[in-house]
Amino acid sequence: MYGYCKLTICLQREYDLVIYKKKVYRLLDEMEMLQPQRRKRLKHPRKLANKREIKASNVLWEMDIKYGYITGEQRFFYLLCVIDVLDREVIDFHMGLSCEGKHAAGLIQRTLWQRQLFETKERPVIRTDNGPQFISHVFEEACAGYDVTHERIPPKTPNKNAHIESFHSLLEAECLQRYEFSNYQEANEIVTNYIHFYNERRMHGSLYDLAPKQFRQSVTMQQVQAKTVKV
Q: What does the pLDDT look like over 162-172, one tens digit per residue?
């Protein structure tokens, strides 16, 4: 038996009736002849970003993509980073001429390994925007497989991913705008060196003027106390 939409077309074609879908729907509803409506089920329902108070490392990580340009080859490259909201460290990154869901999934695995979290019960929340890499099945399945909660910010709200956006602004001002890359290899080396500098040496005002890795080590040794971050 047809549903009300196709039944409307049949009535119009075979009987030259001037009738519309709403009328057919109402008549079928009155006669209790409506076909059950199929509901589209999302395999990975979207989880919106929640307000949080972060008091330790490895609680909330932000993940996003930055684009750079290679003048000598007239093409763009992708830089996908994961940053810890509390200690501001770029835990790991993917840089390449392409960036897909599989690259984001692999990066999650590496960051968990970097922070030695595979043996722990509690895993960080991963916060992203709604880019195609982050809504892909391969990325969502990786998050589920690694027991990581993935939450996405609403469209046009980059402030909810403020820490990774702040790092990208620094990267743009202190690295990408200062160099004109002749090839991908040169871009990879310079960007990688900058990220190491940012993590290990660049002073951060909200981290007692320590670099992210220095700050995290100082917190571990109880030399400084981490400030609560509200996001």
A: 999 999 999 99
Quick: pLDDT tens for 55-77: 999 999 999 999 999 999 999 99
Structure tokens at 107: 């990066």
Residues 164 and 64 in one domain: yes
- Residue 160, token pair as written in the block: 């909810």
Name the one residue in this structure whose structure tokens are 């202190």: 174
CATH for 63:
3.30.420.10
Q: Using a cut of 0.70, tell me whether the model's pTM lies above it.
A: yes
Domain annotation covers residue 46: no
Q: In which domain, by residue range, is 23 found?
A: 1-39
Indicate the Cα dihedral angle 170, 131, 189, 172, nearest 10°: -20
CA atoms within 13 A on the CB side of 65: 19
- Encoded tokens for 64: 């996003």
